[in-house]
């Protein structure tokens, strides 16, 4: 099935309570999990490692999250085009710093994580396409006790929802940690029957290094839940311009850093992009 991929970037929110998020609301939205909850309610308990979509406690963090077509049925019914995603954390910290975050979202077929590294119980990441244009933003924040923290993402371009699952891939690097910070924040989550969220948190190995090589396997956590999310979208009836179909048929090859490779391919692993479809290929 055709895969569509776009990059979305973090809206500059800083210290922001849920009640304060009123500007630029999408025309329509759905909520998955307890995105809306009682004031002062705590998020998911657990260790400081297994936070998603990002972990404020570590230098490097990242995650992949699979949202099911069943939870997205209203968007399909409205023939919707996704424009925004927001996640919410309960804050039990006094924390300040900066973080660079890039988030990708794409239509996806698989419903959970199943493959594992050979000889281990560590799950493999799903392949995502790094060749799309990226937009990165430094998130500067100050967090205080008992404030819900909302991470709001706005699509550079709208993503036409195709009626299947969604894969969200997040990469983050914390570039400044204040000495007095105690960054313990917990996401609100929806429990699922299968392994639907995989999380990476580490002070030495980045998401890219973990994704490319499988190093620091002990930093991976797989969960039977997804972070609560609010997904904003425009329905076809709202008059949003549709996403034009990509009729390109020539194949383009990219290395795992997202750089297009011209000419003959040397042995290695590449991303092949043909039209809107992307696959990982090995050249021997």
Give a quick summary of the entry.
With 284 residues, this protein is mainly beta. It has helices at residues 73-77, 207-213, and strands spanning 5-10, 28-32, 60-67, 81-91, 95-108, 137-143, 149-160, 165-177, 185-187, 189-191, 197-202, 220-223, 225-227, 229-234, 251-254, 260-261, 268-274, 277-283. Strand 17 (268-274) and strand 18 (277-283) form a beta hairpin.
Write the layout of secondary structure elements.
Blueprint (H helix, E strand, L loop, with lengths): L4 E6 L17 E5 L27 E8 L5 H5 L3 E11 L3 E14 L28 E7 L5 E12 L4 E13 L7 E3 L1 E3 L5 E6 L4 H7 L6 E4 L1 E3 L1 E6 L16 E4 L5 E2 L6 E7 L2 E7 L1
Can you put this structure into words, describing what you see?
It contains 2 helices and 18 strands. By secondary structure, the protein is mainly beta. The strands form 3 sheets. Strands 1, 2, 3, 4, 5, 6, 7, 8, 9, 11, 12 and 14 form a 12-stranded antiparallel sheet that branches. The chain has a 4-stranded antiparallel sheet with strand order 16-15-17-18, with no helix packed on it. Strand 17 and strand 18 form a beta hairpin. 37% of the residues are buried.
């Amino acid at each position: 099935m055709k895969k569509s991929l776009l990059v979305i970037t973090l809206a500059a929110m800083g210290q922001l309570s849920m009640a304060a998020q009123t500007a630029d609301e999408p025309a329509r939205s759905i909520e998955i999990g307890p995105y809306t909850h009682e004031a002062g309610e705590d998020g998911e308990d657990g260790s400081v490692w297994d936070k998603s979509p990002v972990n404020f406690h570590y230098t490097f963090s990242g995650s992949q999250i699979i949202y099911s077509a069943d939870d997205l049925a209203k968007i399909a019914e409205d023939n919707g085009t996704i424009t925004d995603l927001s996640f919410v954390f309960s804050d039990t910290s006094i924390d300040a710093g900066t973080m660079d975050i890039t988030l990708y979202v794409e239509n996806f077929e698989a419903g959970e994580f199943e493959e594992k590294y050979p000889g281990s119980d560590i799950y493999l990441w799903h392949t995502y396409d790094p060749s799309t244009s990226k937009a990165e933003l430094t998130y500067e924040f100050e967090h205080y006790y008992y404030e819900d923290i909302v991470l709001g993402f706005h699509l550079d371009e709208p993503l036409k929802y195709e009626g299947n699952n969604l894969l969200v891939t997040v990469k983050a690097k914390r570039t400044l940690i204040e000495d007095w910070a105690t960054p313990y924040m917990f996401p609100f989550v929806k429990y699922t029957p299968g392994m639907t969220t995989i999380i990476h948190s580490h002070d030495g190995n980045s998401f890219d290094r973990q994704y490319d090589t499988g190093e620091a396997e002990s930093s991976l956590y797989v969960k039977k839940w997804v972070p609560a999310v609010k997904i904003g979208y425009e329905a076809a009836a709202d008059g949003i311009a549709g996403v034009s179909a990509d009729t390109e048929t020539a194949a383009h090859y990219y290395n795992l850093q997202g750089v297009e490779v011209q000419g003959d391919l040397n042995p290695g692993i590449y991303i092949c992009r043909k039209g809107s479809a992307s696959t990982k290929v090995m050249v021997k």
